[in-house]
Structure prediction request, 432 residues.
Amino acid sequence: MSLSTLPRRLAALALLGATAAVSACDDSTGPGQDGDGAEPITSLPRALTAGEEELIARSTAFGIELLGRTVAADDRPNVVLSPLSASMALGMTLNGAAGGTFDAMRSTLGFDGMTQSEINDGYASLIELLTTLDPDVEFGIANALWANDGFPFHPAFFDAVSQSFDAEVQTLDFALPSTLDAINGWADDATQGLIPEVLEELDPDLVMLLMNAIFFDGAWTESFDPADTRPGTFTRADGSTVTVDLMTAANVDFPLAFGPTWNAVELPYGGGAFAMTVVVPVGDVRTMVADWTPADWADVRARMAEVEVDGLWIPKFTIQYDAFLNPVLADMGMEVAFNPGADFSNLSPRGNELCIDFVRQKTFIEVDEVGTKAAAVTTVGIGPTSFLGLRADRPFFFAIHERLSGTLLFTGVIGDPTVEDSGPAPGEGGCH
Prediction:
């Protein structure tokens, strides 16, 4: 039977790939508790501004492309990203860019034609909207800027990031171990312990870190009964199988969608303003995601219709993901920001000496019968451009030579410059 002839009730739906929408803040009902009976949320508390609509639409396009390119470049079995976290961390960084670097970053983020002020205003209002929308779901956004003590920065950059992103700004010595402890401690607190460490070490040559953290804890609107969870088979892309715990539900209303090459279900949280959408393709999920466009995602959403589901099978899972996004972002159009020649003159008087050293994102997601816990931290490291010089701080070869004729006068290998006298040569002559 083809997908186009499937009945409107879905006989079986298994999870192969998922994207999760994140939700809002206030733990008055206790996040993680059963969401059954939550007050339905059927509209936003206010109409979106034109700037918000523009920012959301373009951020969605950025997120879909980011996932598609990451999946294509990463052959690990699971990929979990937070487009919002990446967009927000890079959006803060954008305030320091100028000239062609600003244009490239703005274009990669999907904000062509928008001014820095419009972008900042859109982020600020979106943060306020998302974090106050659903009292039955806990959702938090935190931003931080860590500046290396002794390097000059423009106060206007600090002001813009602090005001528009509500970012915590701290100036610390990156050479001190306590600074790394503070950075990891901030991530631990912002994600309520889900991501306790974002950096294993801190390069003292970095001049700044810009960080976004997202924390989500939402109960399903219709929870799964743990008594109905049972072992089941999950088939990997290569045809091999693994046993997983499958959460099950039957004869329950859920929004379903049927496309030409996929089936989908929407699993709402709390009052229903936020949901996880699970799309199961006929073929390879990586191929589907790599080819996706915002129109494809819009088509999934548009086809959703609530029906009584005969059966639903979703595996429980806990996944941690860690990726450096430099190559993907460079391929998306902001390569100039990662190389000498980048222009961060709106960040520092020495901005022409700086570039983005790394963009790293760590994510965590846990899905069970009650709901979902998820967190992400995106860290943007700003450092000096490639050092044109040499540090002979490990064993080296040397040669003293006459340049014009090429005559070698002395050659050697230095393994320990502190040993001034190697002592007598070992052994004796062989002719007696």
